[in-house]
Design brief:
It is a single chain. By secondary structure, the chain is of the alpha+beta class. The chain contains 36 helices and 41 strands. Helix 3 (about 135-140) crosses helix 19 (about 665-695) and helix 12 (about 440-450) packs across helix 13. It is found in: Endomembrane system; Membrane. Its EC number is 7.2.2.8. It comes from Colletotrichum asianum.
Length: about 1150
C-alpha cells in the first residue's frame, strides 16, 4: 500500500471560541408508561400522534418490543394519569410506571430566567404495547408532532419503548401516556426523571459549576452534520471542552453551568437542525465534595401527606443527601445523594427508621422489563385469543365449506327456516359475532383511534377486511329474506372468523419469536444474584482475619473461625451493596458486584460477560466482575463498584442503548411503513372498482365470475378487495431492522463484543482502514525495565544509586501510564520493596505532558536532611524542550539498545522505549523499557488484510520501537505514525477520512479518546479507561484477544446482511403476493382467497423474525479461530455447515482410497 500523504499538525493548533447568552431553564417531568396492545410500527406512530398538539408534552419515545413509552412533560399542564388516558384513547392499554420530578437545578436569576422557568427538563420512558411495525412507530411519533413542551422524541419498535424529553410545565408524563394510548397503543410509564439526573443541587461554590454534559443527538448522518453541531459551540462562552461522535450520536461537553446551563446546550444543537436529548450532567465537584447520583425507591406503608413531608425533611437533613421527594400518587421516592458519603443501604435504613419500607426501584423495573422482553403476558393473551377464535372458526368453516362440499346428504345448513333464512347462515352468524366483536374488539378500538388521528395502523386493515366479510354476509341474508326468489344467500362468515383466527395466530407466533430475539439481553440482566452475603462490620472482619493469619503463621492455636472470621455475616439484597463492603463468596456463588479479592484464591467463570471460555484464576488483588460465577474457592472481596456502576450494568445499558437506537436504514423503513396502510386501502378500493367494471364490461370475464359457487360478481369483487386489504402487512417491513439488531447485538454481547447502536453497526460494515494504538492495544501495555544507563556521578556509590531510584520512583508514584507503572515497579525492586509498599517522601507540582513525559518536584525521605529535586522523565524532545542538554552519545546508545532488542526478540518483543531522566536540570541517565506483543496480534492483522482492510499504527512512542512492532505483526513501515500527540492522532484519522477511507480507530487510553471520537467507528478495549469506552462506538470485552476486532467487523456485516435480506424479503413478499390478491392472474385461473391471504399476512412478520433469529447461530469463521479451537467454532450459516458436512464425507472417501485423511480436511475448513 502506498504511504498515505498525512501531515501531522503541530502542538500549537487551537480553535477560537466566543460568547453566547445564557438560556432560560424549565422544569420537566419524565413519565414512563407500559403500553399494551401495540403490534407494529403503525401502532407506535398512533401512540405518538396522540400527543400531537397536547399542551405540556415535551417529547415522546415509544418502543414496540419493550412496550414502553417515555414522555417528557410539564406536570402542571398534564399529569401522568392524563398521559395514560391519551394512550388508552388511542386504543391501547396504558399503565404509569413512574414519574420523576427533578429538583431545581439552578438558582433563579432575573436577568436570565423567568420565575416560571426555574426548573429542568424531564426525560420520560414509556413502555408501549401493541406496536408491530414501522407504521406503528410512525403513528406514535406522529402523535407528538407540534405538541407544546416536547423537546425530543425517540422510539424503538423492538424494545417497545419511547423516550421523551419534555417540559413538565407544559406536558406531564401522564399526558404523554394518554397521547400514546390515544394513538391506539398501550402505554406504561417506566421512568420519568430529570434530563440531568447526575446533576447535584446548585451551589455558590464556584468549583461546583464545572460540569460534563452528555447529549444524545438525533439526525446526524455524516461529517458535515458533526461539523454543523460543533460549529454551533464555537465562540460560546462557558464551553471548556467539546467532543462529538457521529456514530454514537453523542456529544460530551465540559462547561461552566453559570455561563452555559445544560438546557442551553440542547437548544444550541436543536437550533442547528438536530434533535438533542440530555442524557446526564455530572459535576466535577459538588456541595458535598463528590459527584451526585439520583436513586429511586418504591415506598411501602401507605404514607400520607404529613408522613411524606416528614420523610423528605428527615432525609434532606442527612449528610450526603441533596434532596428527597416522595410522590404519593406513585409511592416513588426520588433521592439525590452523594454515593461517596451515603449509599443506597443507608437511605433505605433511614426510610425504615421512619416506620416505612423501601425497595430500590431498579429491581422492580428490571423484573418488569425481563417479563416484557420475554413477552410472557402478550404470548398468553394471544394464545388465549387464538384458541377462542379457533373454537368458533372451525364449526363455521365446516358448516360453510366442508359439509356442503363433502357431505351434502347431511347438510343441515341448507334447511330453510323462513323464506331466504337458512339454518346454516343463522348458526354461522351466531358463531361469528363473538369472534368479530369479542375477540376483534381490540382491533376496532385501536383501529378507530388510529383513523381518528390520521395515522392508520395494521389493525385498520384487519377491521376493514373482517367487517366487509361480516356485514356483506348480513346484507346478503337480508336481501334473500326481503326479495324473491329467496334462494340461499352467498355468505362468507367463515372468511371473517378465519381471518381473525389467522391474525391472532400470527400475533401469538410473532410475540413468541420476539421474546426469543431478546433472550441474550434477558440473560445479561439475570446474571446478577438477587442477594449477597457481607460482613456486618468489615473492619472487625479484617482484624479477625489478620489475627487468624498471624496465628497460623506463628504456629499458635487459631482463635477466630476461618469460616466467619469471628465476624457477623449479613444477607442483603444485591442492589443495596455499597462501595467498601466486603462480600463473602462460597463455591458456585454468583458475584454480585465489581471488586478486588482481599482473601483466598479461586477460579472464576467469566464467559457470560467477556466471552472467555476458560475459567480465570483469581488471587489477592485480582479484579472481580459482577455477574460472573465463582469456582471452588471460598473467598472474600471488597466492593469497588456497585449498582448501576458495575461493568455488567454498563454492558446491559450499552446493549439496551444499541437495541433502542434506530439505524438510518430503519428510519427509512419506518417512514415507508407510515404510508403503507393508506396505499393498501387505496389498492383494495381500486381492485373492487376495476373488477366490478371489468366483470360487467367484458364479454368473457374470468371463469370465477360466472361460477355458481362463487356467489356472483359482487361477491367475487368483495373477496378480491378483502384479500388485498388482509394480505398486505407493514409489520414485516418494520420488524426487519430492529429484530436483526436486537438478536445481533445480544449475540455480540455474549461474545464480548458490544456495539453502540444500529448506526454504528451500519458504519462498521463500511470500514476500509483500521488504525491501531500501540501500547495497551497491540502490546500488553505491561512494560518492564530491561536496561538502565546512569552517568558515573550517580553510580559512584550504592547510596547515590538508591537515591536516584528513590527520586525517579517518587516522580512516577501518581502515574497510571504503563511506562510510569513500570518505572515505579523497577524502583521498588531496586530498593528492595514489595509491590504494595509505598516510597517514603512527597511529590508536588506534578505535571504530565501527554505523549511526552512528566515534570515533578519530589522530596525523598531518605535522611533527616530532606532535599527537594526537580525531576523530568520523558523522551529526548521533552527534555530538550525543557532546556535539558541530552548528550548525543546517550541518544546513540539508546538507539543501539533498540537495535539489539528488536533483532533478538522480533516475534515477541514490542521493541524498546527509552525514558530519559533529568534531575535539577541536568541529564542523569536513561532507562530502556520493553513491552510484549499480544499473542495472536499478527494473526488478527493477517485476517484484517484477508478481509481487504488496510491497517496502520499510531503511537506516541519513538519510531524505531513502533516500526519494530509493525514488522512483528505484519504492518508496513509506511503505515506507522510515531511520536504523535493525542491531537495529532486525531488529525491523522481526519486526514485518512479526507482521503476517502472509512476509518476504524482501536485504542484503550484517554490519549486515544479524541481519535476514537473522530473516527467513523471507534473501537475501545475494555481494559482501558472509561473515557475511551465512552468515546468509542464498539467496546471489546476481551482486551487480550485482538481477533475480536475482525470478529466484530464480521458480526456487523452478518447483522447488516441479515437486515438487507429481511427488507428484501418483506418487499418481495408483498410485491409477489399483492398481484395475486388483486386478481391480476384471474384470467389464468389463479387468485388468493381471503382466508389464504390472512394466513399469508400472519406468515410475513413471523418469517422476518425467524430470519433474524438465525443470527443466534453466528460464530466466528474458522479462519478467525486458533487451530487448537477449530473443533469449538465453525463458520456461520446453513451453507457453511452443509459445506463442512460435504468436506467431511469427501474426507472419508479419499481416506478409504488412500488419499487425504479427515483431519487434514478439517484443517482446510473455512
Amino acid at each position: 500500500m502506498a504511504p498515505p500523504n498525512i501531515k501531522v499538525p503541530g502542538p500549537d493548533d487551537s480553535r477560537p471560541r466566543a460568547t453566547l447568552a445564557t438560556p432560560t431553564a424549565t422544569q420537566w417531568a419524565t413519565t414512563t408508561l407500559k403500553v399494551g396492545g401495540m403490534t407494529c410500527g403503525a401502532c407506535t406512530s398512533a401512540v405518538e400522534s396522540g400527543f400531537k398538539g397536547v399542551e405540556g408534552v415535551g417529547s415522546v419515545s415509544v418502543s414496540l418490543v419493550m412496550e414502553r413509552a417515555v414522555v417528557m412533560h410539564n406536570p402542571e399542564a398534564i399529569s401522568a394519569d392524563q398521559i395514560a388516558e391519551i394512550i388508552e384513547d388511542r386504543g391501547f392499554d396504558a399503565e404509569v410506571l413512574s414519574t420523576d420530578l427533578p429538583s431545581p437545578m439552578f438558582p433563579a436569576d432575573q436577568n436570565l430566567f423567568d420565575a416560571e422557568e426555574d426548573s429542568g427538563m424531564l426525560t420520560t420512558t414509556i413502555a408501549i404495547e401493541g406496536m408491530t411495525c414501522g407504521a406503528c412507530t410512525s403513528a406514535v411519533e406522529g402523535g407528538f408532532k407540534d405538541v407544546p413542551g416536547v423537546k425530543s422524541f425517540s422510539i424503538s419498535l423492538l424494545s417497545e419503548r419511547a423516550v421523551i424529553e419534555h417540559d413538565p410545565d407544559l406536558l406531564t408524563a401522564d399526558q404523554i401516556a394518554e397521547i400514546i394510548e390515544d394513538r391506539g397503543f398501550g402505554a406504561e410509564i417506566v421512568d420519568s426523571g430529570s434530563a440531568q439526573q447526575e446533576k447535584p443541587r446548585a451551589s455558590t461554590n464556584p468549583s461546583s459549576s464545572v460540569a460534563t454534559t452528555t447529549v444524545a443527538i438525533e439526525g446526524m448522518t455524516c461529517g458535515a452534520c458533526t461539523s454543523a453541531v460543533e460549529g454551533g459551540f464555537k465562540e460560546v462562552d462557558g464551553v471548556l471542552r467539546f467532543n462529538i461522535s457521529l456514530l454514537a450520536e453523542r456529544a460530551v461537553i465540559t462547561h461552566d453551568t453559570t455561563k452555559l446551563p445544560a438546557e442551553k446546550i440542547a437548544e444550541i444543537i436543536e437550533d442547528r437542525g438536530f434533535g438533542a436529548e440530555i442524557l446526564s450532567t455530572a459535576f466535577e465537584t459538588s456541595t458535598h465534595g463528590g459527584a451526585s447520583s439520583t436513586a429511586q425507591f418504591k415506598v411501602y406503608g401507605n404514607p400520607d401527606a404529613t408522613q411524606a413531608l416528614a420523610l423528605e425533611a428527615k432525609l434532606s437533613s442527612i449528610p450526603g443527601i441533596n434532596s428527597a421527594k416522595l410522590s404519593l400518587a406513585t409511592s416513588r421516592l426520588t433521592v439525590t445523594h452523594q454515593p461517596n458519603i451515603i449509599g443506597l443501604r443507608g437511605i433505605v435504613e433511614a426510610v425504615e427508621a421512619e416506620g416505612l419500607n423501601a425497595l430500590v426501584s431498579d429491581n422492580d423495573d428490571n423484573n418488569a422489563q425481563l417479563e416484557s422482553l420475554a413477552k410472557t403476558r402478550e404470548i398468553n393473551e394471544w394464545r388465549r385469543a387464538f384458541k377462542m377464535s379457533l373454537s368458533f372458526a372451525i364449526p363455521v368453516f365446516f358448516i360453510s365449506m366442508i359439509i356442503p362440499m363433502c357431505f351434502p346428504a347431511i347438510d343441515f345448513g341448507s334447511w330453510e327456516l323462513l323464506p331466504g333464512i337458512f339454518l346454516g347462515d343463522l348458526v354461522c352468524l351466531a358463531l361469528t359475532i363473538p369472534v368479530q366483536f369479542g375477540i376483534g374488539k381490540r382491533f376496532y378500538i385501536s383501529g378507530w383511534k388510529s383513523i381518528k388521528h390520521g395515522s392508520p395502523t395494521m389493525d385498520v386493515l384487519v377491521i376493514l377486511g373482517t367487517s366487509c366479510a361480516f356485514f356483506f354476509s348480513i346484507m346478503a341474508m337480508l336481501v334473500s329474506f326481503l326479495f324473491p326468489p329467496h334462494t340461499r344467500p352467498a355468505t362468507i362468515f367463515d372468511t371473517s372468523t378465519m381471518l381473525i383466527t389467522f391474525v391472532t395466530l400470527g400475533r401469538f407466533l410473532e410475540n413468541r419469536a420476539k421474546g426469543q430475539t431478546s433472550k441474550a439481553l434477558s440473560r445479561l440482566m439475570s446474571l446478577a444474584p438477587s442477594m449477597a452475603t457481607i460482613y456486618a462490620d468489615p473492619i472487625a472482619a479484617e482484624k479477625a482475619a489478620e489475627g487468624w493469619e498471624n496465628a497460623a503463621t506463628s504456629g499458635e492455636p487459631k482463635t477466630p473461625n476461618r469460616d466467619g472470621h469471628a465476624a457477623e455475616e449479613k444477607v442483603i439484597p444485591t442492589e443495596l451493596l455499597q462501595v467498601g463492603d466486603v462480600v463473602i463468596l462460597r463455591p458456585g456463588d454468583k458475584i454480585p458486584a465489581d471488586g478486588v479479592l482481599v482473601r483466598g484464591e479461586t477460579y472464576v467463570d467469566e464467559s457470560m460477560v467477556t466471552g472467555e471460555a476458560m475459567p480465570v484464576q483469581k488471587k489477592k488483588g485480582s479484579f472481580f466482575i459482577g455477574g460472573t460465577v465463582n469456582g471452588h474457592g471460598r473467598v472474600d472481596f471488597r466492593v469497588t463498584r456497585a449498582g448501576r456502576d458495575t461493568q455488567l450494568s454498563q454492558i446491559v445499558k450499552l446493549v439496551q442503548d444499541a437495541q433502542t437506537t434506530r439505524a438510518p436504514i430503519q428510519r427509512l423503513a419506518d417512514t415507508l411503513a407510515g404510508y403503507f396502510v393508506p396505499t393498501i386501502l387505496f389498492l383494495g378500493f381500486m381492485t373492487f372498482i376495476v373488477w366490478m367494471v371489468l366483470s360487467h364490461v367484458l364479454a368473457n370475464p374470468p371463469k370465477v365470475f360466472t361460477e355458481e359457487a362463487s356467489g356472483g360478481k359482487i361477491m367475487v369483487c368483495v373477496k378480491l378487495c378483502i384479500s388485498v386489504i388482509v394480505f398486505a402487512c407493514p409489520c414485516a417491513l418494520g420488524l426487519a431492522t430492529p429484530t436483526a439488531v436486537m438478536v445481533g447485538t445480544g449475540i455480540g454481547a455474549e461474545n464480548g463484543i458490544l456495539v453502540k447502536g444500529g448506526a454504528a453497526l451500519e458504519t462498521t460494515t463500511r470500514i476500509t482502514q483500521i488504525v491501531l494504538d500501540k501500547t495497551g492495544t497491540i502490546t500488553y501495555g505491561k512494560m518492564s525495565v530491561a536496561k538502565m544507563n546512569l552517568l558515573p556521578a550517580w553510580q559512584d556509590s550504592e547510596w547515590r544509586r538508591r537515591l536516584w531510584w528513590h527520586i525517579v520512583g517518587l516522580a512516577e508514584m501518581g502515574s497510571e501510564h504503563p511506562v510510569g507503572r513500570a518505572v515505579l515497579g523497577a524502583a521498588k525492586t531496586e530498593l528492595g520493596l514489595d509491590e504494595e509498599a509505598t516510597l517514603e517522601g512527597s511529590v508536588g507540582e506534578f505535571k504530565a505532558a501527554v505523549g511526552k513525559g512528566i515534570n515533578a518536584l519530589v522530596e525523598p525521605a531518605v535522611t533527616n536532611n530532606r532535599t527537594r529535586y526537580r525531576v523530568l522523565l520523558g523522551n529526548v524532545r521533552f527534555l530538550r524542550e525543557n532546556n535539558v542538554n541530552v548528550p548525543a552519545e546517550a541518544v546513540e546508545a539508546s538507539e543501539q539498545l533498540n537495535v539489539k532488542a528488536n533483532s533478538s526478540a522480533k516475534n515477541t518483543s514490542a521493541g524498546t522505549t527509552n525514558i530519559f531522566v533529568a534531575i535539577d536540570g541536568s541529564y542523569t541517565g536513561h532507562l530502556c523499557l520493553s513491552d510484549t506483543i499480544k499473542e495472536g496480534a499478527a494473526a488478527a492483522i493477517s485476517v484484517l488484510h484477508r478481509m481487504k482492510i488496510k491497517t496502520a499504527i499510531v503511537t506516541g512512542d519513538q519510531r524505531s520501537t513502533a516500526v519494530a512492532v509493525a514488522a512483528a505483526v505484519g504492518i508496513s513501515p509506511d503505515n506507522v505514525f510515531a511520536g504523535v500527540s493525542p491531537d495529532q492522532k486525531q488529525a491523522i484519522v481526519q486526514q485518512l477520512q479526507d482521503q476517502g477511507e472509512c476509518v476504524g480507530m482501536v485504542g484503550d487510553g484517554i490519549n486515544d479518546s479524541p481519535a476514537l471520537a473522530t473516527a467513523d467507528v471507534g473501537i475501545a478495549m475494555a481494559s482501558g479507561t472509561d473515557v475511551a469506552m465512552e468515546a468509542a462506538d464498539v467496546v471489546l470485552m476481551r482486551p487480550t484477544d485482538l481477533m475480536d476486532i475482525p470478529a466484530a467487523l464480521h458480526l456487523a456485516r452478518s447483522i447488516f446482511n441479515r437486515i438487507k435480506l429481511n427488507l428484501a424479503w418483506a418487499c418481495l413478499y408483498n410485491a409477489i403476493g399483492l398481484p395475486f390478491a388483486m386478481g391480476v392472474f384471474l384470467p389464468f385461473g389463479f387468485h388468493l382467497h381471503p382466508m389464504a391471504a390472512g394466513a399469508a399476512m400472519a406468515c410475513s412478520s413471523v418469517s422476518v423474525v425467524v430470519s433474524s433469529l438465525l443470527l443466534k447461530f453466528w460464530t466466528r469463521p474458522s479462519y478467525m479461530v486458533d487451530p487448537s479451537a477449530q473443533t469449538k467454532r465453525r463458520g456461520f450459516g446453513i451453507v457453511n455447515r452443509v459445506k463442512y458436512v460435504v468436506r467431511r464425507l469427501r474426507g472419508r472417501r479419499t481416506q478409504d482410497q488412500g488419499y487425504v485423511p479427515l483431519a487434514n480436511m478439517a484443517d482446510r475448513d473455512e
